[in-house]
Amino acid sequence: MTQRILVTGASGFIGRHALAPLVKAGAEVHAVSRSPLDNAPPHVIAHRTDLLDQVERHQLVREVRPQLILHAAWETAHGRFWTAPANLDWAAASLELAREAAEHALERFVGVGTCFEYAYGNDGDCHEQSTPIAPYTLYATAKDATRRALAAFAETAGLGFAWGRVFLLYGPGETPTRLVPHVARNLLAGRQAPISKGLAVRDFIDARDAGNALAALALSPVNGPVNIASGQGVTVRELALTLGRLAGRTELVEIGALAERQEPERLVADIARLRDEVGFDAIRPLEEGLAEALDHWRGETEAEPE
């Protein structure tokens, strides 16, 4: 039988990249978002729904009766999501979505978490089973609380449940104020590209690869938390200088011009579960992904009116 899959946040930075692999796997894919779903892959059934609206959410679940939910919708406004009260709304709506769907045909629920659920101060790579969980922002705390409640509910209801902990995203089409487009757009315009000292070590993954990895996790029988990451650490400084080299403007990367943030010194994933249990290892090298992101922003810059 064709599996009915509901993907939430389907117009978002990650969710839109999970659609095509799910269609390719032969699923009946229903994509839901609050904004229009432009450029969706063929055969995707789009639903424009506000999941924070109880009536709209009820109607969607009754109409689709999903057997599997890949839940990527959440508060994502750059710079605001860390402390936005809407994190509490999304935690409640996520639990209600799972409960309502379980009353119909739901068999498996896959949520999207964050690497910032992990405790700060880890010297080694973040491992799903051994690294302590200690979120300190409202965003990460709401994500972790949602995970815990969903895991308990899934066990009680007899559902499969997995939680993809996504590390640092980049890629074509991301919010212009984020790190990679901030540096890329300045370089392409011939302006100084200010960053901090850039000593923090991060695990960056292209959003296209993250979307594909989440689709693979959703389709797999793997349960529990799974890191969605490249497994490779790079300093912010190295990333910015790589963009500078690719753009031929390394001299414009202004290291130390911005203040340091109160964030962990190192956030790098152990991806053994993703690679060995889920069976996903199609992660493009960072330099290749950055070159493609740079090409994207070059096209955006050329298209801007003078």
Explain what the structure shows:
The protein is an alpha/beta fold. It folds into 2 domains: 4-167 and 206-228, 3-Layer(aba) Sandwich (Rossmann fold), CATH 3.40.50.720; 169-202 and 232-267 and 284-303, Alpha-Beta Complex (UDP-galactose 4-epimerase, domain 1). The chain contains 9 helices and 14 strands. It has helices at 15-24, 54-64, 86-102, 138-157, 179-188, 207-219, 236-247, 272-278, 286-303; strands spanning 4-8, 28-33, 45-48, 68-71, 108-114, 160-166, 168-170, 193-194, 201-202, 204-206, 224-228, 234-235, 253-254, 266-267. Helix 4 (138-157) links the parallel strand 5 (108-114) and strand 6 (160-166). The longest helix has 20 residues, at 138-157. The chain starts with a strand and ends with a helix. The mean pLDDT is 95.
